[in-house]
Amino acid sequence: MFKPLTGKYDQGPAHLMVYAGVGGEDAKDWADMLFRMYFKYAQKRGWKVLVTEDRGMEIHGDFVYGTLKNEMGVHRLVRISPFSSKQLRHTSFALIEIVPILPDVEHKKLVIPPEDLKVELSRSSGPGGQNVNKRETAVRIVHLPTGISAGSQQERSQPQNKEKAMALLKSKLMALMIAQRKQQLSDLRTKVKPEWGNQIRSYVLNPYKMVKDHRTGTQSSQPEKVLEGDLDKFIESELQL
C-alpha cells in the first residue's frame, strides 16, 4: 500500500543532479550512468526532461518530486573498471540530489487577503514634519502576519498613495518570500558525502550481478535493466516506507 504523496512539493516538478564522488574516472563514469538511468526512467513515465547542465536535469510532470525524492542519497557501484589496464574490480560512488522546482513568485499574482492588512491614514508632511495637506492623503499599510509595512505620501490623493504603498509592500513581501524559498531549498538539499558507508543502494556488476536497496531490502538480479531505467520496483518499495 503506497503512502499518499501529500508533501508540500510532491505534486510538482523537480531538479535532479548527479555528483561524482570517491573513485576518480570510474566515479565520473558512474555519475554519467546514473544520469542516463534517471533520464530514461523519466522518459518511460512520460515526463518532460530538460537537461540544464552537466549531469543536471529538470523533470516536469505530475508528482515528479514526490515520486523521486527518496532516490536522493549515495549510490554505489562495484564492477571491473573499464579504466584499469589490469582489469581490477573497482568501487565508485555518486550522489543523487533532488530538489523541488518552486513556482516563481510574480508581483501581479501576489494576492494578500484584506484581513491581513491594516491601513493607516495620516496627513502628508513636508520637511521638518510640517503638515502640507489638510486631508489625510498619506497611507501606511501594515502586513499583520509579518509586521512588514510600507507607506507613501508623495502623491496628492489617498488612492494614489495607497496604490504606491501596496506596490512597495508587495515588493518587500516578495523579497521575504524569495529569501524563504532559498532557505527551503537549502534545507531540502542533502548534506551527505558521496563516499563509503553512506550508500542507500548498491549496484554490483562483478563478481555477481545484483542491485540492492539498503533501506527497503528490495533487490534485482538484473542490474543492466535497472540501469536502463527499470526503477519501478525500487521506487514503489520506497513509497511504502
TrEMBL record:
The keyword rRNA-binding does not apply. Residues 123-139 form the Prokaryotic-type class I peptide chain release factors domain. GO terms for cellular component: cytoplasm. Pfam families: PCRF, RF-1. Keywords: Methylation. The keyword Amino-acid biosynthesis does not apply. Gene3D superfamilies: 3.30.160.20, 3.30.70.1660. GO terms for molecular function: translation release factor activity. Belongs to the prokaryotic/mitochondrial release factor family. This is Protein chain release factor B. It comes from Candidatus Giovannonibacteria bacterium GW2011_GWB1_47_6b.
